[in-house]
Amino acid sequence: MARSGENVAVTGVESINAITLRTSVMAASVRFYEALGFRTTYGGDDAPFSTLRSDGCFVNLIAVPSAAEAETGWGRAIFHVSDVDALYQQALDAGLAPRAAPRDAPWGERMFPITDPAGHDLSFAKRIRSYEVDHPDL
């Protein structure tokens, strides 16, 4: 594993694109973010997973069974990178353990999940399909 100060990056992070939050009240959460100017692009009031967009920023909501469970854990940060597969291989080469290999997700990103040493849920992703292809009205 690389130590602080050692530059071994194959591909760099381009941006933090989205945050994923837990909710036990999906419909209320969707309405909350819509009231703040976000538009639902995936899922909705009764979905187990929803995505809301404001310009190039996204809030993902994942349904959990109880308010208590929604309050534990913080969610997920999603980092956009130029080459998901190269970064995945870099993680493996460094002795890290991604939770899954890169895959093409139904919402139009190629991504892989990994947990940091403190237990934070991270995803590294690259857009493989335009949001506008799925949602031309946005």
Helical element count? Answer: 4
Report the strand count.
8
Low-confidence stretches: none
Radius of gyration: 16 Å
Order of strands across the biggest sheet? 2-3-4-1-5-8-7-6
Structural class label = alpha+beta
Binned, the helix content reads 10-25%
How far apart are the first and last residues' alpha carbons, in Å?
42 Å
* Biggest pleated sheet: 8 strands, mixed
What characteristic shape results from the CA principal axes? globular
Mean pLDDT: 83
Q: How do the SSEs run, as a string of H and E?
A: EHEEEHEHEEEH
Beta content: 35-45%
How is this structure best described in words?
The chain is α+β, with helices and mostly antiparallel strands and 138 residues long. Helix content is 20%, strand content 36%. It has an 8-stranded mixed beta sheet with strand order 2-3-4-1-5-8-7-6. β7 (109-115) and β8 (121-127) form a beta hairpin. The N and C termini lie far apart (42 Å).
Give the key terms.
8-stranded mixed sheet, 8 strands, 4 helices, 138 residues, alpha+beta, globular
Task: Describe the structure in brief.
The chain has 138 residues and is an alpha+beta fold. The chain has four helices and eight strands, in the order E-H-E-E-E-H-E-H-E-E-E-H. The protein has helices at residues 26-35, 67-70, 84-93, 131-134; strands at residues 13-23, 39-42, 49-54, 57-63, 76-81, 103-104, 109-115, 121-127.
Task: Summarize the topology.
Layout: E1 13-23, H1 26-35, E2 39-42, E3 49-54, E4 57-63, H2 67-70, E5 76-81, H3 84-93, E6 103-104, E7 109-115, E8 121-127, H4 131-134
Parallel strand pairs: 1-4, 5-8
Antiparallel strand pairs: 1-5, 2-3, 3-4, 6-7, 7-8
